[in-house]
Design brief:
Largest sheet: none
Structural class: mainly alpha
Shape: globular
Number of helices: 13
Distance between the termini: 36 Å
């Protein structure tokens, strides 16, 4: 599949998944871990039934997966607990919008290679744009609970920014060293962590018994869309480096935000407009479109 088609699939499937997740969180905010568990379970079953790789003799050695799986699982689950710590939603979303600069900094440090100035400027601009749009559409929640819990939630959010960047970098390293096997990686990163959910089994059971039929339908659609989203992201990671993948996912988050503002709130503000401008300009700069527009020198061979 071409890069263009893969990117389109990422935007379509992940935006649909985000839309359905927002509906679920509005109706059953305590079900985040249950949704994550079922997503992991469905992707694992699908990967096993339609596998194109050996479960017991994978292309990437088992021991090389452990760091990636630990990073992926912690990043996937940690953000679910931030809501319980009463971090204001506005601050929550603004911090999450900094994924692209975080990925750029982590890649810079790990590879010891200075990124292009256009990459840095583009990452910062798009993150500012997403932050402005999030702030403009956020419902401000008054501080609840203790100040210590609030601080802990912010620390978790900042930590998951780095962990998410390290996850993408580790994925890139494995693909470089052992070849590109997105289906295999998708299966193992979701299958191996499943036993860890046993630690919250009572919570998962209570939520499953309390969900209504309409919520189960939305949940089923969410799980399927998450599979296509995760598969598309893994496929994208075989075609681009971790920083560019994070950048594309940040743009996807911005589009989801605009859809949410139109469908759920219908209150587009000047901050959404400014955010959109920054995202467009940041994307243009990041992909170095100014450089591509320069006229190529004419040589005698062209005549």
């Amino acid at each position: 599949m071409s890069l263009k088609n893969t990117t389109f699939n990422v935007f379509l499937s992940c935006c649909v998944n985000s839309f359905l997740m927002e509906i679920l969180m509005a109706k059953a905010p305590e079900s985040a871990n249950f949704v994550t568990f079922l997503q992991f379970l469905f992707i694992s079953i699908q990967g096993f039934l339609f596998r194109t790789f050996s479960v017991f003799n994978p292309n990437i050695p088992f021991k090389r997966y452990f760091i990636l799986i630990a990073l992926f699982f912690v990043t996937s689950v940690a953000n679910n607990y931030v809501y319980a710590l009463h971090v204001p939603s506005t601050l929550h979303m603004i911090i999450r919008s900094a994924t692209s600069p975080a990925s750029t900094l982590v890649s810079w440090y790990a590879k010891n290679k200075v990124p292009k100035v256009t990459s840095i400027i583009g990452s910062v601009l798009i993150s500012l744009g997403v932050a402005l749009a999030m702030y403009g559409g956020a419902t401000v929640i008054e501080n609840q609970g203790s100040f210590i819990h609030w601080c802990l939630g912010v620390i978790i959010l900042l930590s998951t920014l780095i962990l998410g960047a390290l996850t993408g970098l580790q994925q890139e390293i494995l693909y470089t060293n052992y070849g590109k096997h997105p289906d295999e990686m998708l299966f193992f990163t979701h299958c191996i962590p499943l036993p860890l959910f046993l630690s919250i089994y009572p919570q998962l059971k209570n939520i499953a018994l309390s969900m209504s039929s309409d919520l189960w339908l939305i949940l089923a659609l969410n799980i399927v869309s998450q599979f296509f989203c995760a598969h598309s992201v893994h496929d994208l990671a075989t075609k681009e480096n971790s920083v560019t993948v994070t950048f594309i996912l940040t743009i996807r988050k911005f589009i989801s935000l605009l859809i949410s503002s139109i469908v759920f709130k219908n209150n587009l503000t000047i901050l959404h407009v400014l955010g959109t401008i920054l995202v467009v300009v940041g994307t243009y700069i990041y992909f170095d479109c100014f450089e591509s527009k320069k006229q190529r020198p004419v040589s005698l061979k062209d005549e």
